[in-house]
Amino acid sequence: MSLIDTVTFDVWNTLLVHEFYDDRVKNARIGLIARAFEREGFSFSKEDILKAYDHSETCLSTLWRQERDACLEEHLALFLEGLGLEATGRNMSVIRLPYANAILDFKPSLVEGAQSTLLSLKKKGYKLGLISNTGRTPGETIRLILEGHGIMKYFDYAVFSNEAGYVKPNRKIFEIALGGLGSKAESAVHVGDSMLLDVYGAASAGMKAVHFNKYTERFDRYAAQYYKAGGRYAAPDLTIERLADVAPAIEALSKKGI
Prior knowledge:
This protein is of the alpha/beta class.
């Protein structure tokens, strides 16, 4: 039996939450990019920007369904391609911040219990990691949000899909995290809200999985357009409704020797 010494967390709907799984973030991103182009003397309409967004959406959706991801620069290049522009340093610099940071205006909040749970686990000596799919909000922006809430300091290693090149549930992103943490899969537990991305993904990498189900239904409706289970399923080792129950869940798993 391996003792649990490592806990990894999903980010969205596990540690951070926002209420905008509709077109509000999309429209904000398009508006910010349109204004950035206008300031630099380009004459694109919002309709042009929307077409470029849709072009990049088609390309990125195909990639995500293959459980791969693109770095931020590749995201920007796809967007510029949709406008018929070359991915020069100047063109990418115009849209980099409006593209990457659109979510900041929506002020994602901490899930209740996140701060105290991470502090408790850290004091108990667990290695802590992050494993997050990023969508259009890159790891560098998610780090800023987590730092702003004062919790980035608790993590020993963080893996974001746009930096790793893989999205959950691909086992490789979990293996990258375990490698960075210096941990063995059989000694690690992953905590997340998605049965496919987090529970199945962790199990496929040989990790234990705790399903945090407070926001699962809402996220699954959004995620279904990008990720397909295709019959893949793994049962969680434990299911919880509050982050405050993470530490007791891990202790229970250790005692059971699961």
